[in-house]
Amino acid sequence: MSWAIVCESSDLAAQCLASAQHIGLAVEPIVDDKPCAAALGLISAGRPTAIVYLKAPPLDDLVELSHAARGRSERVALALPAPSDDQRILLEVAGELGLCAVSELKPLCALCALLGIHALDAAAASARTLNPADRARLVPALESARDGRAQFFNVDALQLGYRSSSDAQPVRLGEAADVREALLSLRRLDAQQREVESSVEVDARAVMDVIFGPKRALSDPASKNALAPYGIPLPVEELCGSASRAASEATRIGYPVRISLASPDLRIWDHPDLCVDMVDNAARVRDTFRQLIAAAEARFAAGPTSSSGRILGVVVSATNEPLAELGVTASALPHRRVAIHLGFADPHGRASGDQTATILPAELPVIERALRRLAGADLLLDTSPAQRKARVDNIADLLQRIAAFVNDRREQISRVELRPLVVLLDGTVEVREACVSVSDWFERNA
Q: pLDDT band for position 109 (50/70/90)?
């Protein structure tokens, strides 16, 4: 049966057909501006299906395709030819979801040829008979050969072929560089997620009391009150509405303290000057309170409407030295999955765009691989095995709890932001700033 290859444009369809003809692969290009919906119909009909995306696909598409493929025990192939900073991340995430993903059309055809003969373990085949140059090109994608029956061979000076055994029908795959990428996509399947569930027993009424109301972004204190029943680690802190109360709570918590403005209309990650660290005595606490309130009022007055925003006071919290600061955004995906975007939240990390993504709930190795995709991963993971395990375990546990919160309230909330999620020197974590965005669900169901 020929492969149905859904393309977003006629140009891509023509290129795909030419690439497939080059290796004798039977394909039927289909042009559709909604490739995921078209592919889901083909998968449900039992057709071998591949998709070529012109632009980076949303994570929703990957989850839908993964769910459909798992339901029929099929493999779905993707090509993401448009170069982007997110391409490498999407290839990894697709593999974790059980999708075979490559970056160009010729590797896609090589991949389809291998999937067509169910050669999922082709990376373990022998390359002994290849000429030295092609064997060297394939080495980065090869595992150690488990037996001598499956092997790659040179069809001619340019193309490679594959046979699963000495008496099996050989297939042409294309040039060595394209075969290498196809094999790497198959190896990413070794790390695919198993279907796991993440749930936390909570007092649902306590959460509902906080989030009930119109569409809005909750303040940091309110967001933390909504997340607290899920066991989210939070710093020792107190919301204070007066300078004297702030000084009293700072004394109780113990100096030095961190003082930040509490307002649903001015986020600290957008206005870092509205947060002061290492305040070390009561007099400075009172002065800082007045300065932050005055700065916030001036900012509201200088706004486009010159209207006053909401100021709840300040949050006085314990100061612990951070090892790293991460930014996390969580939002609901189909089939009870949750998209997690995370990256370094310090000024350098934000400026460099050091971010990655993963899909939860997932097993611990999947979350660790997501962390390793960050360019600055060594800051978290380049340490002793025991320390690395403690850090990864604590980050993973917090992310799974956030995923459980999003799944339980996926209709009532649109997303959760944590900036920063702080990794402390002892490997523990805490959420210093949070924002839960409530959807219009309560208004629609009033």
A: very high
